[in-house]
Predict the 3D structure of the following.
Amino acid sequence: MKQTTGVKLSFMMFLEYFIWGAWYVTMGTYMVNHLHASGRDIGMAYSALAIATIISPFFIGLFADRFFAAQHLMGILHLLGALLLVAATKVTDSNLFFWVILAYSLLYMPTIALSNSVAFNQMSNPGRQFPWIRVFGTLGWIAAGLVIGNLDIERTPSTFYIAAEVSAGLGLYCFLLPSTPPKAAEKGVSAGKSMGKEAFILFSHVPYIIFLIAAILVCIPLSFYYGFANPFLNELGLHNAAGKMILGQVSEAVFILAIPFLFSNIGVKKMLLLGMAAWIIRYVLFAYGDTGAHTWMLYAGIVMHGICYDFFFVTGYMYTEQLAGKKIKNAAQGLFTFATYGVGMLIGTRFSGYIVDNYRTANGHNWNSIWFVPAYIALGVLIYFIIFFREKKQLQPAA
């Protein structure tokens, strides 16, 4: 891959995830301040992305990936998405806001897969080259948090305007990206294969079924963090909450470096257990944290994101890929994403909204009780996993 191509792809990834980070993290806080939204309303809005995650593989597999150049379709989706991000700021009703965010999510989520397709199509050695390109996505998310936090606009519509401007810019930029032709003409490509039907062979492996159930359940605690960490920190009065939350992404980037070493030395089960244990610790820290003597607990809970996410989800992707083997690894990754960020997050976002409403008080919320709910769920998943998961250290591909 040429250096100039690498620069183009890196910038694409930076903008792709800057857009997501600009509106997603602070959406709950915006909804509280401008729509007077309940916890249920916020949970519904965050479930939009989960619904889109479930639907987008069918869109990509049946339609987009087979008949359109990836970079052109990606550009069109981002241009349309920019209009919907602006439209979201004009809505004053939480129910209508959900439908606008759902429509936007249905446009945005396919661009994740499309951006990966554009990148992989240019690489001679994806295993080595892709991580260096994808890390710019994390940097884009971090940059969005810095911009939103330092401008002190996380309660305002400006977060959506910034995301819309970048989305429009990326939409135009996509037409300058290297060509990634449709796959309809490729030999052996079918709709079922494009949608990842091949990955169903993993269901013949009992430990993987047990793992996938745990992964879906762990998305419930994850949903609490994504949907309500920013409103929680703002309600406590933590200044520049969005800017401080990027410490989670910094932590994620740091801890991911340890994953390959630990994966090969302590095994998948211990890695996953460490990730689940980290969720419990994080929410206990949030439950007792405040902006006084225990502010350090809030920071520690944010920084725990690296262990929470990397040690479970990144390890989960690696476990899935190793078990799947080279032939069906892409389909298997799609299955894991469908189960977690689709099914798991859909359950988690709806459930977390109801829990937050249940602990609403005259002055805000009883966050101590709220955070113990995902902590107990993570503890339950941890116990379930210890009892039932049995996997050999040296995995044999299922296909």
User: Anything to note?
Assistant: Strands lie at 360-361, 364-365. Residues 196-399 form a domain with the Growth Hormone; Chain: A; fold (CATH 1.20.1250.20).
